[in-house]
Specification:
There is one protein chain. The protein has 758 residues and is an alpha/beta fold. Helices cover 45% and strands 15% of the residues. The protein has 26 helices and 22 strands. Strands 7-14-13-9-10-11-12-8 form an 8-stranded mixed beta sheet, sandwiched between helices. Strands 15-16-17-18-19-20-21-22 form an 8-stranded parallel beta barrel, surrounded by 5 helices. A hairpin with a 4-residue loop joins strand 1 and strand 2 (49-56). Helix 7 packs across helix 8 (275-291), helix 15 crosses helix 17 (541-554) and helix 23 crosses helix 25 (716-727). The radius of gyration is 30 Å and the shape is globular. The model is unreliable at 162-170 (pLDDT under 50). Bound molecules: phosphoenolpyruvate and magnesium ion (MG). Magnesium ion is lined by residues 566, 605, 626, 628-629.
């Protein structure tokens, strides 16, 4: 059974569209379970009915014609109850509903299992048999297992089915919509540029070949280089290998023959795909076929095929200079996994929008996109992005949607939103030099979070009063090795000088989690609970000391540096970091630099830190709450995982309680407390935090004018009343709804998201 399951899942993932997927499933299950009938009913949203979409055993003419509502038949009952129903004789069941066209009167035994995806019933998988008998436990378990596995595949195939039917050459405009998670607000209209990781045969985008002959020639050249490599290795190892081992190299060369893989690639290029896309298609299709073979030796050959493919691809990419990301004007960059490093490389002027298949709204890539003000959608798990290169799209960063080949009507509607956005931005720009002061006179400094070079100019343009978080790891990410002390000193000095005498809070290197350095890879099962932030730097004093020295030197003659420690869990980490800072200070003084001890703070990001706050108070000068991590650790929700994005709720009562507790504890210790997580960038969140008593709010430069405008329109008394109400509520959704309602009633609604087309 397990073998059958593996085979079905593999085959299904290669099927071109939903119809093919369903056809395959019913054929394989019917044969594998040696039963008379296997059918799939899928829920159709427009008619609200379960339609018979595929069957092996029932009358074929009934497929696509027969349907049931969720209150009809046993199929409806399975869907309603969302659990399996196993009957010896379906006909005698009170819910039985006879579907004449199917010819099912002959079948008595019935087993129906719901196909569930993200709490929704997508459909019902049914097996039937002529004689009266109960399907046994192992058969039921098999059906439940296969249905759970197939739910994701069907959901994905449904989402991509329509797009797959349009060949990548098509010019048809169909408003095809894909849903993801909002990453950064805003709307963008432009053309897709797919960024594929190098040497990844599965990630190569399809592209229309401009010059077919040239693509074939490029492919032949790359191929010849791989052949030469194989011959070279073969000759080198000739004396050391047995004859049969040596023969393997001949097998590889044969695989690359014109009559084998190479011939298939050339045929595919002739159909119009570029060499890399054609190669990727041929390699993945062949490798999948081998991977499904029963013979273990042949199954292993799938690895060889993929390896050969990777080698040819590497040469093709080397020749086409694939390292640099070429963006046309209004480029919408689409990546399998958008990383802060990619963002560091692209030219922001030409970038209109960003899409990431993986990641979520609080991934670091999304945070950076917000700070750059680039509309972004994350977690588009079902997006067939490899086929989108060059396609016109509308990206809606408010609702987290992407429309492919949009119609003129939809384009007009979104152009109108773009115009409105510009008007709001122009209005907000007038606030630049005004203070963030409530109508009853409470003043709260608004700081910015920076990391990219361009952030400094944008922040000053928007009236930031300091830097509450400079993510020092960002400049580390766009390099090929650790920057030297001098290099770091120059980078830091630019931030300090731009803001002096205003405070600049520099966080020490915070790598790990979803931030990795290409030259210092950290591979872990559970990276957010692993080697992150201060844990890494304390283990590597040679890296930490260089950074601390560079910061202290950069602060020479300025005096506006504050040093902040990330991911702190216990007091000894603070003691150790303080000792290293003192050592760096003494070293530099001895070397003749005129340096002084800066203010030192810890980030409150781990729940354990919340409960040691009063102990930290004896050791540091300030604290800053990293609500992004604090939320993920408090709610046990990976901030990077789109599947649980719905559970990542900053307005969760537990999060609000902890934020309030931190502010109260800090007050008791007279310890300045700020917040630099994304919550401060939400106008509603900012109001609550201000009412809790936070001394400063730090946020992305893009949202700062919005937050300032909000604060300037309310009184502290109003904010406190709102906080009081919220703190007595126990449901995150209701809190969210109350916040929206309150913002609207205060006339602050238009500062949020505009109403986008449904
Ligand atoms: C946070 O965790 O809230 C924070 C500000 O740090 P980062 O988002 O960089 O992890
Ligand atoms: Mg953090």
């Amino acid at each position: 059974m397990l073998e059958l399951l593996r085979k079905i899942v593999q085959e299904v993932s290669r099927a071109p569209d939903v119809e093919a997927v369903l056809g395959l499933i019913v054929r394989r299950i019917q044969r594998g379970m040696m039963t008379d009938v296997c059918s799939v009913f899928l829920f159709d949203r427009s008619s609200q009915r379960f339609i018979l979409r595929a069957s092996q055993g029932l009358n074929r003419k009934a497929v696509g014609r027969v349907s049931l509502s969720s209150s009809e038949g046993i199929v409806g009952l399975v869907a309603q109850r969302a659990e399996p129903i196993n009957l010896e004789d379906a006909e005698v069941h009170p819910a039985f509903c006879f579907l004449k066209e199917t010819g099912e009167e002959r079948f008595h035994a019935f087993l129906g299992v719901p196909i569930m995806h993200q709490k929704q019933v997508l459909g019902v998988l049914v097996v039937q048999q002529q004689e009266c008998r109960r399907y046994d436990e192992s058969e039921e378990a098999f059906m439940v297992t296969i249905s759970a596995q197939l739910a994701g595949v069907i959901a994905h195939a449904e989402a991509t089915g329509t797009i797959n039917k349009i060949a990548w050459q098509s010019k048809k405009r169909i408003d095809h919509r894909f849903e993801g998670i909002p990453g950064a607000p805003g709307v963008a209209i432009g053309r897709v540029v797919v960024v594929a990781p190098l040497s990844d045969i599965d990630a190569v985008p399809d592209k229309v070949a401009d010059d077919i002959a040239l693509e074939i020639a490029n492919f032949e050249t790359a191929l010849e280089r791989v052949r030469a490599d194989i011959r070279k290795v073969s000759a080198k190892l000739a004396k050391r290998l047995r004859h049969d081992e040596q023969a393997l190299f001949d097998v590889y060369l044969k695989m690359l023959d014109d009559n084998a893989l190479a011939g298939e690639v050339v045929d595919r290029i002739k159909l119009g795909n570029w060499a890399q896309g054609a190669l990727s298609w041929v390699i993945t299709t062949n490798a999948q076929q081998f991977a499904m073979m029963n013979d273990a030796y042949l199954r292993e050959r799938a690895t060889d095929i993929r390896d050969l493919g990777r080698r040819v691809l590497a040469y093709l990419q080397e020749d086409s200079g694939a390292q640099s990301i070429e963006l046309p004007g209004n480029g919408i960059l689409v990546a399998d996994e958008l990383s802060p490093a990619i963002l560091g490389e692209v030219s922001a002027e030409k970038l209109a929008g960003l899409v990431s298949v993986k990641g979520s709204g609080n991934s670091h890539a999304a945070i950076l996109a917000r700070s750059m003000g680039i509309p972004t959608v994350m977690g588009m798990l079902d997006l067939p992005y490899r086929q989108l290169n060059g396609r016109e799209v509308i990206l809606d960063g408010y609702s987290g949607r992407l429309y492919i080949d949009p119609s003129d009507e939809l384009l007009d509607a979104y152009r109108e939103i773009l115009r409105e956005q510009e008007e709001v931005a122009a209005e907000l720009a007038t606030l630049r030099d005004l203070p963030a002061k409530t109508v009853d006179g409470s003043r709260i400094p608004l700081w910015v979070n920076t990391g990219l070079l361009a952030d400094v100019t944008r922040s000053l343009e928007r009236g930031a009063e300091g830097i509450g978080l400079y993510r020092t790891e960002i400049p580390f990410m766009v390099r090929e090795f650790f920057p030297s002390e001098h290099e770091q000193m120059q980078i830091y000095r630019r931030q300090l000088e731009a803001f002096a005498p205003l405070p600049v809070t520099m966080r020490t290197l915070d790598i790990g989690g979803d931030k990795s350095l290409p030259y210092f890879p950290i591979k872990e099962e559970n990276p957010f609970l692993g080697w992150r932030g201060i844990r890494v730097t304390l283990d590597h004093p040679e890296i930490f000391m260089v950074q601390l020295r560079a910061m202290l030197r950069a602060n020479e003659g300025l005096g506006n540096l504050r040093v902040m420690l990330p991911m702190v869990t216990s007091v000894n980490e603070v003691d150790e970091a303080n000792n290293l800072l003192d050592r760096a200070l003494h070293e530099l003084l001895e070397e003749g630099y005129v340096v002084e001890r800066p203010l030192v703070g810890v980030m409150i990001e781990v729940p354990a830190a919340v409960y040691q706050l009063r102990r930290f108070a004896k050791r540091v000068d300030f604290i800053s709450v990293g609500s992004n991590d604090l939320t993920q650790y408090l709610l046990a929700v990976d901030r990077n995982n789109p599947r649980v994005a719905g559970l990542y709720v900053p307005y969760h009562p537990a999060v609000l309680k902890v934020l309030d507790l931190i502010a109260r504890e800090a007050r008791k210790e007279k310890l300045p407390v700020s917040i630099c997580g994304e919550m401060a960038a939400e106008p509603g969140g900012a109001l609550l935090l201000m009412a809790m008593g936070y001394d400063a709010l730090s946020m992305n430069a893009t949202n700062l004018p919005r937050v300032k405008s909000t604060i300037r329109r309310v009184s502290m008394v109003q904010a406190k009343v709102l906080l009081d109400k919220v703190m007595r509520m126990d449901d995150a959704d209701k809190i969210q709804a109350l916040m929206i309602e309150t913002m609207d009633s205060m006339g602050l609604g238009q500062l949020g998201a505009p109403v986008v087309p449904e």
